[in-house]
Amino acid sequence: MSFEQIGVVGGGLMGSGIAEVCAKNGIKIILRETDSSVLEAAAARIEKSLDRGVKSNKIDESQKEAISSRITYTTEYSDFKDCQMVIEAIYENEAAKIECFRELDNHVVDSQAILASNTSSIPIMKIAIETNRPENVCGLHFFNPVPVLDLVELIPSLVTSKETIERAHTFAANQLGKIVVRSQDRAGFIVNALLIPYILSAIRMAEAGFATPEDIDAGMVKGCNHPMGPLALADLIGLDTTMSVAISMYEEFNEPLYAPPPMLRRMVEAGHLGRKTQRGFYDYAR
Ligand SMILES: NC(=O)c1ccc[n+]([C@@H]2O[C@H](COP(=O)([O-])OP(=O)(O)OC[C@H]3O[C@@H](n4cnc5c(N)ncnc54)[C@H](O)[C@@H]3O)[C@@H](O)[C@H]2O)c1
């Protein structure tokens, strides 16, 4: 059975990308944000991304309109009542996610509906046990930018049902055309468990004055053929998200390599969050 109506909570970088990709694949989307101004920003982000698709001839104007018409914007959890799945993509904050899943548990009527989190690092079990349907909860971790990157990590908790796992896998692979890898329910899953210590090492290197951000990034781009250096990548992910992911991994493993360096903390405190605020390791306002 394929999914026809899906809810997305959070219309930031990831939520808007997830909504766009689902709508492109014919799925009706209800996108919830906290207030109307953030909702407008989410709609504008999706519109801009679809315009890029039109410019590069991947879709035409009529397809763009059809995709846009499948997305409904709301500030109400009650609009999720008929959804067959809801994907949560709000801030990487455990308490906020738990609160969100309690709301979903209260409002989504279908007892078979899947409640998925796009968390980068928070163990799924911590969220699942706060609902009355932990067997329906799993991690579905998309990558940024969602319309471009093919991977989805599927993370069952110890209590996720086999049916939920298979339905979520089929959805990501067959309905969205993503490549699905499965991870145990450990903070950071597969990709961030490897990526975050690498990014944090680059930040420590810059902090120590070992090399400039430009030279660190050029080293990895030109020397290792990475598409982007670690500091430019941290700016793309968002330095707040990078720090939150590091904190949950540090909490889980107590390994110093996951501890966010002071330079990262200070930049987040200053509101220098990377591309989304136009300022991070690089200045994007110019
Ligand atoms: N940025 C990345 O590269 C990336 C990649 C994969 C996964 N993730 C994960 O995806 C999630 C979202 O990250 P992001 O980069 O999109 O963050 P973001 O800061 O761009 O967006 C988060 C959005 O959630 C909204 N929000 C907060 N609480 C809400 C609520 N209760 N209901 C509705 N909306 C709410 C905020 O208004 C904001 O627009 C996080 O868990 C993050 O770890 C991020």
Overview of this structure, please?
By secondary structure, the chain is an alpha/beta fold. It has two domains: 5-182, NAD(P)-binding Rossmann-like Domain (Rossmann fold, 3-Layer(aba) Sandwich); 192-277, Orthogonal Bundle (N-(1-d-carboxylethyl)-l-norvaline Dehydrogenase, domain 2), CATH 1.10.1040. Helix content is 47%, strand content 13%. It has eleven helices and eight strands. An eight-stranded mixed beta sheet has the order 3-2-1-4-5-6-7-8, sandwiched between helices. Helix 1 (13-24) packs across helix 2. Bound molecules: nicotinamide-adenine-dinucleotide. Nicotinamide-adenine-dinucleotide (NAD) is lined by residues 9-15, 32-34, 38, 89-92, 96, 100, 118-120, 141-144, 237-238, 241, 245.
